[in-house]
Amino acid sequence: MGFLEAVAIFAAGMAAGTINTVVGSGTLITFPVLLAFGYAPVVANVSNTVGLVPGSAAGAVGYRRELSGQRRRVLWLACASLSGGVIGAVLLLSLPASAFKAIVPVFIAIALVLIVIQPRLSAWLTRHRPRARTQLGPAATLSVGAAGIYGGYFGAAQGILVLAILSLSLDDDLQRLNAVKVVLTGLVNLVSGIVFVFAAHVAWAPAGLIAGGSLLGGALGANVGRRLPPPVLRAVIVVVGIAAIVHLLT
User: Are 167 and 129 in contact (CB under 8 A)?
Assistant: First the structure.
């Protein structure tokens, strides 16, 4: 691995750590970068998942004030997310690599649509949030588990899906719900990453660089990431995501 490649992967990890904390689509940065440097799609996805775990942990620590008083809620949803993450990781390793290469462009396209409509989605969620509902129903819990399956398999825009589910199900401050989202998506990355460490081929050099970058980015995302211009952030994600789709289809 050359110096410039290492710098690029570290920078992508830092950007992904920040984006995952603020929005929830950092994979759309790191995954295409690994593809561009010649890593096979499944190896890139596995290494990316392992590398992003420290960033999620840093983001959760940064949101510890918003997490205060939500222990019971987080523990309940964590069970659904962990179960989903394991299922998604097993599906990734069980299905042929050709299936992943065929399915992921569709997932990336869906993620990009979510990124583009995120401002309108947030406004809609604000208007349609439940009144005085503080407990999640079975449908919402199952939906969080389904998002975990998606996250364990690929994960781009998993955070947006989880935040949408929480916002539609609970009457609470969005920053507090975003803090829960950071924990849940981080747990999905953690449990799927553990599965990958023992059962898949991890490219440890890029995974380590992404880990270091995402750790720094996660801390930045929790503290200053909210100040990033959202249109610029979305534009970068869309451009990189489209590049990944083109790379996978050619």
Answer: yes
Cα separation, 207 vs 52, in Å, equals: 8
SS3 9: helix
Whole-structure pTM value:
0.83
Give the tens place of pLDDT for each residue, 125-165.
667 666 656 667 788 899 999 999 999 999 877 888 888 88
In a 3-state reduction of DSSP, which class is residue 39? Answer: coil
The CA distance from 41 to 79, in Å, is 29
b/e map 106-130, b = 16+ CB within 10 Å: ebbeebbebbeebeebbeebeeebe
The single residue listed with the structure tokens 């990355």 is: 189
Q: Are 238 and 109 in contact (CB under 8 A)?
A: no
Residue 16, number of CB atoms within 10 A of its CB: 29
